[in-house]
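Please, structure for the following, as tokens.
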Amino acid sequence: MSSELIGDLSGVDLARADKIAPRLSAGIVAGGDHHIDTSDWIHCDLTGIATLLSALATATQRGAALAVTMPSGGLVAQRMQACGIDPDRHLQMEGGRATGLAPKRTKEADA
């Protein structure tokens, strides 16, 4: 069973990131199974996107599972796209959940 890391939030933005990032870092433990549901978020800016991407990278580095529920067309997906991040291309997506950062693409793969 996965644990919700920041379930009591309505989003992450510049005003909240300094308090949320340490909670995420402390909550992501090796071998853990975690999730973040952004479906109902009403706040998200570039800082929020960076916080989510950092959490995905941290989970990978620590050997933990993290799934970020991010509905297509939802606020977080829209903010990512506005920042030039295509969730389907830049993230590992499984059924509307980001489970990691996509592997780096090579020039040969793009050809």
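Residues 46-62 form the longest helix (17 residues). Strands lie at 3-4, 11-12, 33-37, 43-44, 65-69, 91-94, 97-101.
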